[in-house]
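Re-run with default settings, no changes from the original entry. Doing this only to confirm the output is reproducible before filing.
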Amino acid sequence: MQLDSNQIREIIPHRYPMQLVDRITDYVPGQWADGIKCVSVNEPFFCGHFPEAHVMPGVLIIEALAQTGAVAILSEEEYKGKIAFFGGIKNARFRRQVKPGDVLNLHCEIISRKGPVGFGKAVATVDGKVAAQAEISFVIGNKE
């Protein structure tokens, strides 16, 4: 199943400039999701990171991975209309720079859950090479 940017907005609350997933290329609700982020020189963060040597901030790569995972968990029927809050990040590693023109391939697998708390394993790649990876935790809550 694929989701375009408008369909993603129906699942997660992120909007410009913080919606960092352009498309979900495949997913299984409650289990995993694959997505892409087409990195453009027009991204607002490139104004300051870095003006003469554009590099996507690692924390935003992790956020894109978390949003991919949020689509996986929030597309499950019992969590529709909820929000996934970051609970933590462990073992984050950054392996290569992500620059304008790169297509960031995002994968997040939900590895365990207990009630509203869960854990995911996430990997971002560019051209088949790992750019970043991390273990992330989340808490499901209400939007209000």
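The mean pLDDT is 97. Helices lie at 5-9, 58-74.
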